[in-house]
Specification:
- The complex is a heterodimer of chains A (about 350) and B (about 210).
- With about 350 residues, chain A is α/β, with parallel strands linked by helices.
- Chain A has one domain: 3-Layer(aba) Sandwich (Rossmann fold), CATH 3.40.50.
- Chain A contains eleven helices and eight strands.
- The radius of gyration of chain A is 23 Å and the shape is elongated.
- Chain B is mainly alpha-helical and about 210 residues long.
- Chain B has a domain of about 100 residues.
- Helix content of chain B is about 80%, strand content about 0%.
- Chain B is elongated and about 100 Å long.
- Classes of the chains: A alpha/beta (about 350), B mainly alpha (about 210).
- The interface between A and B is small, with 11 and 10 residues.
- Chain A: Keywords: ATP-binding, Cytoplasm, Endoplasmic reticulum, Hydrolase, Metal-binding, Nucleotide-binding, Transport, Zinc.
- Chain A: Pfam families: ArsA_ATPase.
- Chain A: This is ArsA/GET3 Anion-transporting ATPase-like domain-containing protein.
């Protein structure tokens, strides 16, 4: 094994994602990082590897710029769909931003989590910051829970977005707790005005609506507890060995730690390994720079599994290429001998 | 039991001193004494934390994040942690301070104005001392014994007013004399280049003596 390791250091954790595959309790895996560092490629590859050792795997993209369809050359939608060529690997794409209108529409038709709320109160509920994304998120999670997938991989949107997204359960929980409290305080008074059955002017029922909000809050708080359990949830950071990406990764790791979300894997992507004797000036210069940051990463994240992935000469698209690429998550890539 | 006349005078003196120095100054002095003597450990801890924070911050700022990312990031983690601790300890000490100030203010009020009111109320009917008969006309006697002391005596309320007037006068006299002394000291040293301090005393003294006149 040691020959296959790029930097064989005894005190370092193995540079693969094998630990993720081995940790059978894992249910939610988030893959995140700055835009353009290869999150989608990494999450697809991880999904392929996981599908080999798990009963069923679902890959969800929450990135508004959906790339799963591109990566697998297959159209995915809001419903989970089996990926061509696999029997236990499905994918779906959700848009955390665009679903608020949909939720509103659903509510008008009498379905979805906010159905039955009166127009005015509905507007009020939607005024809580971040509730739209959190609601669609909760909705997806409810769906996913009923679908009984063993592991769910989230291909998240670029950094800032991801963090906001993960913060929502706490935000919403607080907001809903406030709303519930208000309703218990003023509910009797309102009921006094509205009459015994508590019907609001537009035909909605106050108690029923509060029950619905409470239910939503419970779902979300359950999700929150699950995300904070390191046996159930982990976050994989993807970065490239460049300053800004590293900076964002450090920030993200600190923020995740403050939310209590476990993270112990970093995928360093797009590493250049010029062949010995290569006279490509740019490649050699870049390799030098990348080497500098790689050393920094190893020094800083000595408690992480740091996986090093090479930059390939072709785009990683389609099942075969992804499968080949995914091998390197488990068996470390061996750079050409004698290179820089 | 000291004489009530003396007690009232001293009380008025204390009230005057407190009002001159300002309540917040006294509170601050008391608070500093309190944290340095009552809980010297937490004060020292906070100072230590602060100096540590400044040191880490200086080190972080002098470290290039691009050349030594690992070192910089470690410093930054330390920095963030210290900052959080510092803010927390500051918040708790602020809360402690405001509680302390409330207590101190209440106690001070009870010991000064509260005590004065108590004395004024309980000695209302008692004569402080008697004015020899025929020294002042009737209406003045009536005023001196106002509100409820026997006619021909001086009441506690009038005594309080008299003490206040004397203390204020004495204070203003002292300030004026100090200003005058400062001024003459300044004129004596005319050959010496003007010192900022001397000039300042003169200006302040001038302003104050003007107020007295």
């Amino acid at each position: 094994m040691s020959t296959a390791v790029i930097n064989a250091d005894d005190d370092q954790l193995e540079p693969t994602l094998q630990s993720i595959l081995d940790q059978k309790t894992l249910r939610w895996i988030f893959v995140g990082g700055k835009g353009g560092v290869g999150k989608t490629t990494t999450s697809c590859s991880l999904a392929i590897q996981l599908a080999k050792v798990r009963r069923s795997v679902l890959l969800i993209s929450t990135d508004p710029a959906h790339n799963l369809s591109d990566a697998f050359s297959q159209k995915f939608g809001k419903e989970a769909r089996l990926i061509n060529g696999f029997t236990n690997l499905s994918a779906m794409e959700i848009d955390p931003n665009g679903s608020i209108q949909e939720l509103m529409g659903q509510a008008d038709e009498g379905e979805g989590p906010v159905a039955g709320m009166g127009g005015m109160v509905q507007d009020l509920a939607f005024a809580i910051p971040g509730i739209d994304e959190a609601m669609s998120f909760a909705e997806v999670l409810k769906q996913v829970k009923s679908m009984s997938y063993e592991t769910i991989i989230f291909d998240t949107a670029p950094t800032g977005h991801t963090l906001r997204f993960l913060q929502f359960p706490s935000v919403l929980e607080k907001a809903l707790a406030k709303v519930s409290q208000l309703s218990t305080q003023f509910g009797p008074m309102l009921n006094g005005i509205l009459g015994a059955n508590g019907t609001l002017p537009n035909g909605a029922n106050l108690n029923e609506m509060m029950e619905k909000l409470e239910g939503l809050r419970e779902t979300i708080s359950e999700v929150n507890t699950q995300f904070k359990d390191e046996n159930l949830t982990t976050f994989i950071c993807v970065c490239i060995p460049e300053f800004l990406s590293l900076y964002e990764t450090e920030r993200m790791i600190q923020e995740l730690a403050s939310y209590g979300i476990d993270t112990h894997c970093i995928v360093v992507n797009q590493l250049l390994f010029p062949k010995p004797g290569s006279d490509c000036e740019q490649c050699n210069a870049r390799r030098k720079m990348q080497k500098k940051y790689l050393e920094q990463i190893e020094e800083l994240y000595d408690e992480f599994n740091v996986v090093k992935m090479p930059l390939l000469v072709e785009e990683v698209r389609g099942k075969e290429r992804l499968e080949k690429f995914s091998e390197m998550l488990i068996t470390p890539y061996v750079p050409p001998a004698g290179g820089l | 039991m000291p004489s009530i006349l003396l007690t009232v005078f001293i009380l008025q003196l204390v009230i005057h001193v407190v009002n001159t120095l300002g309540a917040s100054t006294i509170n601050n002095v008391l608070w500093n004494l309190y944290i340095n003597f009552a809980s010297p450990k937490s004060a020292a801890d906070q100072r230590e934390l602060k100096s540590q924070f400044m040191r880490v911050r200086k080190e972080m700022n002098s470290t290039s994040s691009q050349d030594e990312f690992a070192r910089w990031a470690k410093l930054r983690r330390q920095h963030d942690k210290l900052l959080e601790q510092l803010e927390k300890s500051k918040a708790s000490s602020d809360a402690g301070k405001s509680a302390f100030e409330t207590t101190a203010s209440t106690l001070r009020w009870v010991c000064t104005n509260g005590l004065r009111m108590y004395i004024q109320y309980s000695y209302m009917k008692q004569p402080m001392f008697w004015v020899p008969r025929g020294w002042v006309p009737y209406y003045a006697e009536w005023l001196l014994s106002f509100p409820r002391a026997p006619l021909g005596s001086v009441s506690v309320n009038v005594w309080v007013l008299a003490c206040t007037a004397v203390i204020t006068l004495a204070h203003e006299t002292l300030v004026a004399v100090a200003a005058l002394v400062g001024k003459s000291g300044f004129t004596q040293k005319k050959g010496v280049p003007i010192r900022v301090g001397g000039e300042k005393t003169q200006a302040a003294g001038g302003a104050k003596s003007k107020k007295v006149s």
